[in-house]
Amino acid sequence: MQASQYHHTFHVPVMGIGFTIDTPVKVAHYGISSVMSLVDDILIEKMREFYCNKWNIPYTPITEKGSIDHRAERITAYLNLIDRIVHDKFSALKRSFEEKGEELHKYIDMLPDFSSIKKQFHEFVANNTVKEDVMKWIDEHLHPGSIDVNIMTKLDKDNYRGDEKLPHEYNDAQAALRGYANSNLRSCIVFSAGMNPRLYGYIEKFEDFYPDEQGDIKKKIILKVSDYRSAIIQGKFLAKKGLWVSEYRIESGLNCGGHAFATDGYLMGPILEEFRIHRQDLIDTTHALFTEALKAKNRTIPHSKLPIKITAQGGVGTAGEHNFLLEHYGLDSIGWGSPFLLVPEVTNVDDHTRQLLCKAKEEDLYLSNISPLGVPFNSLRGNTKDIEKQELIDKGRPGSSCPRKYIQLNTEFGEKAICRASRQYQNLRINLLDEKGLSEVERQKEFDAITDKSCICVGLGTAALIVNDLSTRIEGPGVSVCPGPNIAYFEKIVSLKTMVDHIYGRTNIVNEESRPHMFVKELKLYVDYLKTQIAETPSPFSDKQMKYFREFEKNLHEGVEYYKNLYTDFGEKLATLREDILGELEEIRAHLQEVSLVAV
User: How many Cβ atoms are within 10 Å of 324's Cβ, its own excluded?
Assistant: First the structure.
């Protein structure tokens, strides 16, 4: 399906492990694209059984004992099932026009008001066009949203059959890729968390990632990137293998949900500006390498240069921000993530957690150290997984039993990796503390750092089990949730249509007077992040640390200047923004001067 067939200017990004595990079933028939995580094949298998039972489709379990390739096979079977259900629901939606049902009208009503498809449909209806002609038009012009998937490239642990280490193609990420590649889906795969050369090399083995003469690619590659440099490096790496990156998805380093891959002070606006300026350069540079590689492989070379999409996500919360990103930076789509956690029609969030999200204020949302990956992780105070974790610590049994094992990446205590959130790892580390001869205060500080790690690979999927009345006997009931800071300004549960209307400016569900602009919020987050980094770094600073802090500060100052010029030059386009935005930027500049390292 070509990108031009998608009529919406937003998409629902991957959220956690289970929050969007079946979102396509809920929104794709309305033409809305969304992304599912492929981390947890155990959860995926449970959801496959659930949907087979719900849709009266025969279910045959895929077990670990039954197949050495059970992870890939589970993923393939689930994706094929989701694809079947989505197309069945979409066919029913189209038939609803003949049956005078509401589903087709809901599809049309949710489209942006500027949509030519929306205008054409209303003209057909107003002119009492023959029903057969309308049905033909519907078949030609309406399409389901894309059923996209996500692989976090860092989660590529080795796997074993008993004590025997399996070949690399059975690693978690490569097996997930194979599961997607072997599915019937015509969609996109999103690679996040940076470059994994071995995983990227494995893509070459699958036919669906290569173009035909018209440039059509059945399975497209999307790279989630933090800046232009990362995009060009990864794009060229893949192009040299004859693989085209169809979309670069830019995410804010800190103003996002989940793991926070902070940049060195590079801000969203300047990053988007660089993509806007160099978009054609990115196409030209990678396309030359791409066609050369295809030629070397004796593969079909498309007749013309392939397009790329540039999209963005992270902290977007108003129609004004949404439209400005589309118009000024020429973006193709905007990701709306955390706000959809408050839409039961779209995401799997248990009632307790959803109420916590509704009540959350800025101070309840924080950048934590709970991820076993060692990457800062956005979290919500009072989530039930943290409560469960503390209860185990209080009982003298810190750490998780590690039922999923997806983040077994630490080899500190042997060749076979274990997870830093596991009871095994935390006990080993705590035992070492007793040998260090630390003071009580120092020991407690290190103990807290060890036991702070949480079993998020379970916690981020549990809500899907709770919402669908599936057993949590092995996993436990604790739910981790990882919203972006933006969720603080959304205070009520809403319907899918209401959220879409908010995105397109047909209604408003946030108090814009109390909410900072997304660029300003991100800037503040980076200022706070820099202050924390400086405060937590023992002095005197090394030359390397000094260089890092100064570069970070310089990049923030340049970001402030960029925004000042942006809002001065484009005031008319930014009329929806608060008038005091330049004042806020000046306040932040003053904060930066406070942490200046010139005097150090």
Answer: 23
